Every structure is written in C-alpha cells, then in structure tokens.
Amino acid sequence: GGWPRPPQPTAAPGLMVNPAGVPGLELKLGALVLLLGVTLLFGFAPFWLVRGAGWCWAGPDVRLRVSGWTGAFAGGVFLATCLLALLPHSLRSTSAAFGAAGITLQFPLPEFVVAAGFFLVLVLEQVALALSRPSPPSEQRQPLLAGSSFQNASPPPRCRGRLQADSGPTPALRAFLLLFSLSLHSALEGLAVGLLEDGREVLEVCLALSVHKSLVAASLAFQLRQGRLRRSAVASCLLMFAAMSPLGIGVGMGLTETKMSARHQLARSALEGLATGTFVYVTFMEVVPQQLQSTASRIPKVAAMLLGFAAVTAALFVKL
Question: What is the pLDDT of residue 4?
C-alpha cells in the first residue's frame, strides 16, 4: 500500500561532487588566498617601512648603507633561489618529462635548455643595447640593474618615494627579465599545488611556499626599488608577480580531472628551463655584480648576502 515514491533526481555525471574532495578544494582555495596575501604584504612592506621609518629625513650616507645592505640581502635570496630551488627543480622536471615520454637522454639536454635561456637573454640584451641610441662610455659599462637615486652621490632635493624614469630601454628590460623568470616559476609552483590531491600535502606545500615567496617578494621589491622605475611600474610588477601563484593554483584545480600528456610535460619543462636560464643570467650577471661593485661596506654586504642565502636555505628546509 501507500503512494509510490516519486523518482529521485539524478545529477549529471559531470556535476557529481565527491565529498572527500571538498576539504582539498577548500584548502586549495585557502592556499590561493594565502599566497596572494603574503606576496602582496611582503612585496609592499619595504615601501611602508621606508615611509614609516622616516627614510626621507635620513642622511645620504645612512641611506646609501641601508640601500646597499638590503640590496645585498636580496642578492643572497636570489642566489639561493637560483641554485637551490629553480635550477634543481628545472633539471628534475626536464628529466622526468623525458622519462615519462619513454626517451632516454644521452646528451645533457636539461642543462642545455637552461644554457639556452641564459644565452637567449644575453643576445637579446646586447641587441637591445646595440640598437639603442649611443650613450657615454660610463653608462655603457653599467649593468641592467643601474644604480638608483639612493646610490647617487648627490641625493635628490626632496624624497617623495618616486624613482626617476630612465631614458634608455635597460631598466624596462631588466624588470621584464626579472619579473618573467620569477613569475613563470611562481605560476608553475602554483600549478603543482593545484594538482595535489592530498589535503595534508596541500597544506604543507602552501605553508612552505608562503615562507619562500615572502622572502622573494620583499627581495624583488628592493631590486625594483633600486632600478630607475616609477613607483606605479614597481607596483604593477609586484601585483603581476603576486597573481602568478594563485593563477597556477586555479589552472591546476581545473586540470585535476585531466591527465597531462607527455607532450605537455615536455613543453612545460622546456619553458621552465628557459625561465631558469633567464633567472641565472639576471642573478649572476646583474644582481650579484651590482652589489659587489661598490668599494664601501664590503664585509657588511657579504654578511647580508650570506644572511639572505641562509634565509632561503631555512625556508627550503621547511619544505622538506
């Protein structure tokens, strides 16, 4: 007896929700927000600290020393990021991609891809400098990371926090190279987080990336601050860098249901290798030489560089 029960509505296969996957999805969304907030906070923190500490009222000698120390610390951060994070990850990624494709390498192709990225940037820089209008010999010897107004012997009459725009193409080229290499690596890191399925792994990797990206964001802000870029250009670079990891996480979340083919893995590893070569060039040809070319405060600068290297090393230990 009784009335027949009405048929229960069935959801389409593509709309089925796995309850076990909801916590992982929530953690990934939380990681997206956390990485974005941490990068923005530590990226813009140097500007707030400089303004709050009365930087404009400091003497030129004090400003020169502090600028040199912070730049050396940033150089140590980039050096450790290059040698301990980007380069090993790129080599492993390229080798794993060829292994997944069933290709046995007899030639050091992962290292060759990194070298190709290095020489690609070298050629582009020299071509850009050759095609630009002639400059005095003293300017031709300057690297892409040209000295800022803080590093000049005669500081500007008033400190308003805006860097003077450079008439040549080198500051924009330097900013593009630095931003491209770091942003691409951040996007790939976010993609790896988005592809994770275990909620515990998502949490651990997210916390480790937060520590690492906070150091890189602050160092990137210092390096861009020392270039001849306007404050709006520096802010745009920081916003773009901060958006890369969340973008990678979003793409990874969308790709969790699909399996990346071997061809896609090869393309991804090749792109990462080129970006790593770009970062190697910027680090060893621009950032580190700029910090060591001055004769003032050599020992404190080396100590600050070692401190930055040690900070990234500690952050990488957290990942382990």
Answer: 52
Task: Give CA separation, 259 vs 17, 122, 223, 254, 264, in Å.
Answer: 19, 36, 39, 11, 10
Question: What is the pTM for the complete model shown?
Answer: 0.61
Q: Give residue 20's pLDDT.
A: 43
pLDDT value for 161? 43
Q: Are 272 and 211 in contact (CB under 8 A)?
A: no
Token pair 């502090």 is at which residue? 66
pLDDT for residue 163: 38
Cβ proximity of 221 and 12 under 8 Å: no
What pLDDT does residue 114 have? 92
Per the structure block, which two tokens stand in for 240?
């773009």
* Per-residue model confidence (pLDDT) at position 198: 67
What's at 171, amino acid-wise?
A: P
Mean pLDDT of each 10-residue bin along the chain, 320 residues long:
50 40 68 87 78 55 72 84 85 87 87 91 78 54 45 44 43 72 80 72 74 81 74 86 88 69 79 83 80 78 90 77
- How many CA atoms, within 13 angstroms, populate the side-chain half-sphere of residue 64? 15
How far is the C-alpha of 167 from the C-alpha of 160, rounded, in Å? 20
Can you tell me the distance from the alpha carbon of 18 to that of 167, in angstroms, rounded to the nearest whole number?
57
- Spatial contact of 213 and 39, defined as CB atoms under 8 Å apart: yes
Query: What is the identity of the amino acid at 231?
Result: R
